[in-house]
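DM from R.C. (forwarded with permission)

"hey, sorry to bug you on a friday — could you get me a structure for this? deadline for the figure draft is monday and I only need the backbone to look sensible"
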Amino acid sequence: MQPLILNNPNRNFIVKIDQGELVSFLKNKEELIHQKGQPGWRNSDTEMFPIIGPTEAIDFTVSTPKGNTIQDQHGLLRELTYNLIKSDENSAVYQKEYTANTSIKNSKFPVKSPKEKLSWPYDFKFKKIYELSNDFLKITFEIEAEKGMPFMLGYHPAFKLSGNKTEICKTKTLEVTIQKIMDGGSTAFPVLNTDEIILIRENGQYISIKTKGFNNFMLWTEVPNMLCIEPITAYPYAENEPPLSEKLFNLSNGKDSFDVMITPFG
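My reply, with the result:
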């Protein structure tokens, strides 16, 4: 599948999508997305579903109303392949589909995980919908599943930084430096009970990441040249909560929708 290019009507945004992954977002030729091959992370974006966070602490075994199942960190959705359903000049719809209890090869096995196969005891369809306007890129996640299916959802995009640690993440009540995020380590820095974060940059575009349905973020990087600003339905690393406790999960309504709007400005 060739990468897909989206243009907005004003022609000042160009978005490139490779097999469902957001690999480039240019505003007036300025790249906003972390590029593969650069230090920090091997991807540009991915999704965390139906689990967010570590499963090693519970021996990779997640309890559901339909019994126990094997999940690795951040879930099995990333092991599935997106199919392009439809597209036009400024929008695209991708879908992943899973049949309950199908064994899926774990790409982390055997180097990073002892579990060779993963599974989930529910059917689901997962759509990723891109819509590029004159002001922002909107990404909508639609999840179709059996009512009552437990799930967590996270979106995991990586943004390009200067490398000088001069950027700041800001909400209405909080400012976080890149150094503080790096000091947080692998568990990521929580920014809870908010639907918007603004990435303030010394040079170039500021970036607003505004969400609907998530209401939480976590921030992660181990290098100064990129930052993952991750909308999440729940933060899985809270010290006062047991790993992947029941209260961290949403329950499916049959069809659920979550939005992320990425707006460059300034």
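R.C.: lifesaver. The longest strand covers residues 255-265.
me: no worries. The mean pLDDT is 96.
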